[in-house]
Amino acid sequence: MKKLKKDIHAKQRFAERCGIKYSTKLKKYLIRQIQSSKANFLKRTSNSRTVWLARAFDGRKYKVVYSKITKNIITVLPYKEIKK
After folding, report:
1. Average pLDDT in the 39-65 region?
2. How much is the pTM?
3. Every domain of the chain and the residues it spans
4. Rounded distance, CA 35 to CA 83, Å?
5. In DSSP terms, which residues pair with 62 in a beta bridge?
6. Are the CB atoms for 29 and 36 separated by under 8 Å?
7. Distance (Å, whole) CA 11 – CA 80
8. How far is CA 4 from each of CA 1, 30, 37, 57, 70, rounded to the nearest angstrom?
9. Dihedral sign, Cα of residue 46, residue 69, residue 21, residue 26
10. Cβ-contact 55, 33 below 8 angstroms
């Protein structure tokens, strides 16, 4: 039940903050990026949660909070890309 609530939260935040549908395909792709260390590690927020900058298959970047315990994305944070 707890995992389902976190999936619903992540789905709502992707829609709200990024304006996209958080599909199973996107979820698995981002998790694979994090687990294989292809995403950029940003910071550790607790013993079990870390913040990553992951690039999706469409090239967009997402700042996501990942839980090592559930091995799942908890939420997406607002991300503003700095342009030079």
Report:
1. 92
2. 0.82
3. 2-77
4. 28
5. 54
6. no
7. 20
8. 5, 18, 25, 24, 11
9. positive
10. yes
Residues 4-25 as b/e (b if ≥16 CB within 10 A, e otherwise) read eebbeebbebbeeebeeebeee
Residues 6+ apart with CB under 8 A from 68: 48, 49, 50
Say if residue 36 is exposed, middle or buried (CB neighbours under 10 Å; 0-12, 13-18, 19+): exposed
Strands (E) in the chain, as ranges, are: 40-44, 49-55, 61-67, 72-77
pLDDT in tens, 4-51: 666 788 888 888 888 888 888 999 999 999 999 999 999 999 999 999
Whole-number Å distance between alpha carbons of 14 and 56: 13
Q: 3-state DSSP call for residue 22?
A: coil
Report the DSSP beta bridge partners of residue 64: 52, 76
- The torsion angles phi and psi of 71, rounded to 5 degrees, stand at 55, 50
